[in-house]
Specification:
The chain is α/β, with parallel strands linked by helices. It contains 13 helices and 13 strands. The chain has helices spanning 23-36, 49-52, 71-84, 97-107, 119-128, 152-159, 200-213, 247-252, 263-268, 274-281, 310-316, 321-338, 341-370; strands at residues 7-12, 40-46, 64-68, 87-91, 111-116, 144-147, 166-168, 187-192, 219-222, 236-239, 254-259, 286-288, 305-306. The relative contact order is 0.12.
């Protein structure tokens, strides 16, 4: 438990629904562990139809969840909450995020931060002038820029965009929700992810083409928004939406799981998907595309299996049970040591406390500069 209790406010895309987004899973794990460390947490979520019709709950034991329908309602109901908070965090993809960010910068009396769960996508849309949840003038206004992407991107955010403090706060897994279970194997290879045009060629090559070539093998693709014109092989089980409560069972029903990365995240590097840590916590061996920094999270060919072609996939699918189990167990050990929600909560807490101390030090120095010198001569 932290020595200093923090009052934390998050304005995020969603915590109540995992439909079509990976944000809710991240927020649930992080906020639960912050609560365990003794901090008070409030989550403010825009009430939108696509989440309200796929909502998994409205109340949580570890944080207070409040819905709002407009910026006006947000300001009317929660201005005092922000003024009392030690830390206010605005997340990526929050509707009207630019207007909300400016309001937070003006209203919050203490630390204001941004949590970018989509950093490479954010930077690409910022360059294109299409980003609607953060603008260039907000980078200096957020005292901490938490990022799902680490590596050289952090220096770029500070040097080129003016962030005073950019820090990696990677995705993570809750090991109380993700762990190995003995299941009858349903699928030789599974994939979990919302449709994305830039991921589809890799999914075609690394799973769909393999399924056509291996008609006796069984495959699964879970996630919404796939176009109806995709031709799925008969041995691919399509699951339109898989609630977070069923993810563990999904992983544990596979021999291998497939990870595919968005192109912006491949180019930036150091952008692990939460699916890596979920599968790793379940001891399921992971086949993944490659990107800079992958070795910072798992050791290739020892804890994770890189694949470039469909032939790579079919080759790994010939591994024995013992070989698969060894790869999966190594991934689980690495995940539990470095990539849990508890680890991330500790990192978040340390950065917030450091920002609070920087503020206190700046105030002390300012007051000291205003005091007259006791040795000044009086004429």
């Amino acid at each position: 438990m932290s020595a200093q209790r923090l009052d934390c406010v998050f304005l995020g895309l969603s915590i109540t629904s995992t439909w079509g987004n990976g944000h809710a899973t991240t927020y649930r794990g992080l906020l639960k562990e912050l609560s365990r460390r003794g901090h008070r947490v409030t989550f403010l979520e825009r009430d939108v139809p696509w989440y309200s019709s796929n909502r998994e709950f409205l109340e949580l034991p570890y944080c207070t969840v409040k819905l709002y329908s407009s910026i006006e309602e947000l300001k009317d109901r929660f201005s005092r909450l922000l003024q009392r908070a030690d830390i206010t965090v605005v997340g990526s993809y929050v509707p009207d995020g630019i207007a909300i960010g400016r309001w937070v910068a003006e209203t919050a009396k203490n630390v204001a931060a941004f949590y970018d769960i989509d950093t490479p996508v954010t930077l690409a849309s910022l360059r294109a002038g299409t980003c609607d949840y953060i603008s260039r003038d907000l980078y200096p206004a957020y005292e901490i820029y938490f990022s799902f992407t680490g590596g050289p991107t952090l220096s770029y955010i500070e040097r080129s965009l003016g962030s005073p403090c950019a820090r990696a706060l990677y995705c993570s897994v809750d090991p109380e929700l993700y762990y190995p279970e003995a299941h009858a194997t349903k699928w030789d290879l599974g994939y979990l992810g919302t449709y994305a045009p830039d991921r589809q060629p890799a999914l075609q090559k690394l799973l769909i083409d393999v399924a056509w070539k291996e008609p006796e093998a069984r495959f699964a693709v879970a996630g919404p928004q796939y176009p109806p014109d995709i031709k799925w092989p008969p041995n691919v089980n399509r699951i339109e939406h898989l609630p977070a409560s069923e993810h563990r069972n999904f992983y544990n029903s596979q021999k291998f799981t497939l990870n595919i990365t968005r192109q912006d995240m491949i180019q930036a590097g150091y952008s692990p998907s939460v699916r890596l840590f979920e599968a790793g916590a379940c001891s399921i061996p992971i086949l993944t595309d490659t990107w800079p920094g992958l070795e910072s999270f798992f050791e290739p060919h020892f804890e994770i299996l890189p694949v470039l072609t469909s032939a790579d996939v079919t080759s790994y699918m010939q591994m024995t049970f013992e070989q698969r189990a060894l790869i999966g167990e190594r991934a689980r050990r690495r995940t539990l040591r470095f990539h849990t929600s508890a680890v991330r909560a500790g990192e978040f807490e340390a950065e917030v406390n450091a920002a609070i101390e920087r503020r206190a030090r700046a105030k002390r120095e300012s007051r000291s500069a205003l005091k007259p010198s006791p040795t000044a001569a009086v004429i």
